[in-house]
Design a protein that fits this description.
The protein has about 120 residues and is mainly α. The protein has five helices and no strands. The longest helix is centred in the first third of the chain and has 29 residues. The radius of gyration is 18 Å and the shape is elongated. It comes from Linnemannia exigua.
Length: about 120
Amino acid sequence: MSDNEDGPRERLKAAIWYTVGEICNAEKDKLNVALTPQLIASLAQIVYTQAETLGKDLEMFARHAKRSTINADDVKVCYGAYGVWSLLQRDRSIFGSTPGSPKERESGKETFIGNGD
Protein backbone atom coordinates (compact mmCIF):
# COMPACT_ATOMS: atom_id res chain seq x y z
CA MET A 1 0.00 0.00 0.00
CA SER A 2 1.08 3.53 -0.60
CA ASP A 3 1.55 6.17 2.06
CA ASN A 4 -1.67 7.84 0.88
CA GLU A 5 -3.65 4.69 1.75
CA ASP A 6 -1.83 4.01 5.03
CA GLY A 7 -2.34 7.54 6.41
CA PRO A 8 -6.13 7.45 6.86
CA ARG A 9 -5.99 3.86 8.10
CA GLU A 10 -3.41 4.74 10.75
CA ARG A 11 -5.41 7.82 11.80
CA LEU A 12 -8.52 5.66 12.12
CA LYS A 13 -6.64 3.13 14.26
CA ALA A 14 -5.32 5.95 16.46
CA ALA A 15 -8.82 7.42 16.83
CA ILE A 16 -10.26 4.03 17.77
CA TRP A 17 -7.46 3.45 20.26
CA TYR A 18 -8.09 6.87 21.82
CA THR A 19 -11.86 6.35 21.99
CA VAL A 20 -11.58 2.84 23.43
CA GLY A 21 -9.14 4.21 26.00
CA GLU A 22 -11.55 6.98 26.98
CA ILE A 23 -14.43 4.52 27.33
CA CYS A 24 -12.28 2.15 29.39
CA ASN A 25 -11.14 4.97 31.66
CA ALA A 26 -14.73 6.10 32.18
CA GLU A 27 -15.91 2.58 32.99
CA LYS A 28 -13.01 1.36 35.12
CA ASP A 29 -14.05 3.51 38.08
CA LYS A 30 -17.63 2.24 37.91
CA LEU A 31 -16.39 -1.36 37.79
CA ASN A 32 -13.58 -0.77 40.30
CA VAL A 33 -10.98 -2.53 38.14
CA ALA A 34 -7.52 -1.73 36.85
CA LEU A 35 -6.96 -1.81 33.09
CA THR A 36 -3.57 -2.30 31.52
CA PRO A 37 -2.44 -0.54 28.36
CA GLN A 38 -2.17 -3.99 26.75
CA LEU A 39 -5.86 -4.65 27.45
CA ILE A 40 -6.86 -1.31 25.94
CA ALA A 41 -4.68 -1.99 22.88
CA SER A 42 -6.26 -5.43 22.47
CA LEU A 43 -9.77 -4.02 22.74
CA ALA A 44 -8.92 -1.30 20.23
CA GLN A 45 -7.59 -3.92 17.80
CA ILE A 46 -10.78 -5.97 18.19
CA VAL A 47 -12.93 -2.89 17.51
CA TYR A 48 -10.83 -1.98 14.46
CA THR A 49 -10.99 -5.52 13.07
CA GLN A 50 -14.76 -5.67 13.59
CA ALA A 51 -15.22 -2.29 11.89
CA GLU A 52 -13.08 -3.43 8.98
CA THR A 53 -15.08 -6.65 8.65
CA LEU A 54 -18.37 -4.74 8.88
CA GLY A 55 -17.22 -2.35 6.14
CA LYS A 56 -16.25 -5.20 3.82
CA ASP A 57 -19.54 -6.98 4.48
CA LEU A 58 -21.54 -3.82 3.81
CA GLU A 59 -19.70 -3.34 0.52
CA MET A 60 -20.44 -6.96 -0.39
CA PHE A 61 -24.17 -6.62 0.35
CA ALA A 62 -24.40 -3.42 -1.70
CA ARG A 63 -22.49 -5.03 -4.56
CA HIS A 64 -24.79 -8.06 -4.42
CA ALA A 65 -27.75 -5.67 -4.82
CA LYS A 66 -25.92 -4.19 -7.85
CA ARG A 67 -25.38 -0.85 -6.14
CA SER A 68 -22.21 1.12 -5.59
CA THR A 69 -23.56 2.92 -2.52
CA ILE A 70 -24.21 1.35 0.88
CA ASN A 71 -27.64 2.14 2.31
CA ALA A 72 -29.70 1.33 5.41
CA ASP A 73 -30.97 -1.93 3.90
CA ASP A 74 -27.39 -3.20 3.69
CA VAL A 75 -26.88 -2.38 7.36
CA LYS A 76 -30.08 -4.24 8.30
CA VAL A 77 -29.09 -7.31 6.30
CA CYS A 78 -25.56 -7.20 7.66
CA TYR A 79 -26.68 -7.01 11.27
CA GLY A 80 -29.10 -9.84 10.59
CA ALA A 81 -26.24 -11.90 9.21
CA TYR A 82 -24.32 -11.24 12.43
CA GLY A 83 -27.29 -12.52 14.46
CA VAL A 84 -27.91 -9.28 16.35
CA TRP A 85 -31.13 -8.30 14.62
CA SER A 86 -33.21 -9.32 17.64
CA LEU A 87 -31.22 -6.95 19.84
CA LEU A 88 -32.00 -4.11 17.48
CA GLN A 89 -35.69 -5.09 17.51
CA ARG A 90 -35.92 -3.69 21.03
CA ASP A 91 -35.20 -0.17 19.83
CA ARG A 92 -37.01 0.20 16.54
CA SER A 93 -36.31 3.92 16.48
CA ILE A 94 -32.93 3.00 15.02
CA PHE A 95 -34.64 2.13 11.74
CA GLY A 96 -37.69 4.33 12.11
CA SER A 97 -40.34 1.65 11.68
CA THR A 98 -41.30 -1.94 12.23
CA PRO A 99 -39.25 -4.25 10.02
CA GLY A 100 -40.83 -6.62 7.52
CA SER A 101 -43.12 -6.26 4.58
CA PRO A 102 -46.21 -4.03 4.76
CA LYS A 103 -48.41 -7.15 4.97
CA GLU A 104 -46.35 -8.50 7.91
CA ARG A 105 -46.49 -5.11 9.62
CA GLU A 106 -50.30 -5.06 9.32
CA SER A 107 -50.59 -8.56 10.77
CA GLY A 108 -48.22 -7.75 13.62
CA LYS A 109 -45.97 -10.64 12.61
CA GLU A 110 -42.30 -9.89 13.25
CA THR A 111 -39.66 -10.61 10.65
CA PHE A 112 -36.23 -11.75 11.72
CA ILE A 113 -33.19 -11.65 9.52
CA GLY A 114 -30.45 -14.13 10.33
CA ASN A 115 -31.02 -16.75 12.98
CA GLY A 116 -33.80 -14.83 14.73
CA ASP A 117 -32.34 -15.10 18.25
